[in-house]
Amino acid sequence: MLGSDTKNIRYNGTGRVYMGEVGGLSFVEIGELENLAFGQTASTEKLKSNRHAARATILEVDQEREATLNLGLRELSEENLQVAFLGSAINVDNQAAGNVFQTVPAYVNDRFVDLGKLNVFVTRITGAIVGSLAVGDTVTGDSSGATADIAFAGAGFVVLVNLAGTITPGEQLEETADTNYITVTSMEKLEDVCVADAAGAVLRAQGTDYSLDPDYGMLRKLSTGGMADTDVVSFDHEAVNRKYVHGMSSGSVEKKIIVVTDKDDIGPRQRYTFHKVKLAMNGDMPLIGDGVAAPTLQGSVIEDSSQPAGQGYYKAEMM
Q1: Among residues 121, 150, 232, 310, which one has the fewest Cβ atoms lying within 10 Å of its Cβ?
Q2: What Cα–Cα distance (Å) separates residue 93 from each residue in 59, 186, 227, 243, 244?
Q3: CA distances (Å), 229 to each of 21, 70, 85, 195, in order?
Q4: Residue 1 pLDDT greater than 70, yes or no
């Protein structure tokens, strides 16, 4: 017997997937995949003989042929999610760095309310205060030139928002030069907000009066604490680049997909061009839990009538 040619055996395949518009010439590379499976089925109808009890098959006729692709997406890029979620156009909604001063949310006891900003924080300055400093005062560093607004003034400290510049330890933050100021002993950037009573006399404490998710700006007034419905909230927020799609707003997604195998993998090199694939997410996408959040796209290979006759489904190249 002749031996098998092991060069024809593909083992533990690796490769890349490119996705673009049907009939297009430009593509995005969709990144790491959890898996990619290609399947093809052909169904037939059998005509049985009525002449004998054995009912032998005397004719078998092709009925349907179907090809499918299943892709597990590891990379949650905006293009991948737009396809997976049957999303609308990708919209930009970036958050610029800024501040909120003395807003009064619609509190509900023991429920979170949305402050409308991401990555919130305040700056706490500790030091000796000379003269008087009050809520709403703007202070300026006598050496750095940094400026900020006072959201709360306590005994030996102030809470600042709207900070511009870099405060220097040891400098004076002055409301009035050499008259009303705090000499900076220490400075902390806190993942917190400044919650105070409307008069600015009492500073509420995180964990006692309220709880906070600073990453997503979710604030909860605790019924066991001392907060009032008229308490004011002040904070800074970082710049955040964000985009969004409205899921399930697109009736269907059809893409041209090119699959290429890695040339250094075991087995023959291959390239598959699927001219037109109808895609939709199939199954669960773990948003919370162990493992990779990898939505699975299920695609049906359909005919691209713009291709030459007999070439409308896919092309498999062997190298």
Answers
A1: 310
A2: 62, 36, 33, 5, 7
A3: 53, 52, 39, 11
A4: no
Q: What is the pLDDT of residues 192-235, one digit of tens each?
A: 999 999 999 999 999 999 999 999 999 999 999 999 999 999 99
> Strand locations in 52-156, DSSP E?
57-73, 91-92, 98-103, 112-114, 120-130, 138-141, 147-154
Are the C-beta atoms of residues 128 and 186 closer than 8 Å to each other? no
What distance in Å separates the CA atoms of residue 103 and residue 249, rounded to the nearest whole number?
35
Closest by Cα among 153, 247, 229 to 194:
153
d(CA 295, CA 247): 14
Concatenating the DSSP letter of every residue in 2-61 gives PPP-GGG---S--EEEEEEETT-S-EEE---EEEEEEEEEEEEEEEEPSSSTT--EEEEE
Q: What is the mean pLDDT of residues 29-48?
A: 93
Q: How far is CA 151 from the centre of its chain?
A: 32
> Tokens at residue 246, please?
């409205």
Q: What is the mean pLDDT of the chain?
A: 94
pLDDT in tens, 43-74: 999 999 999 898 999 999 988 989 999 999 99
In whole angstroms, what is the distance from residue 51 CA to residue 68 CA?
A: 40
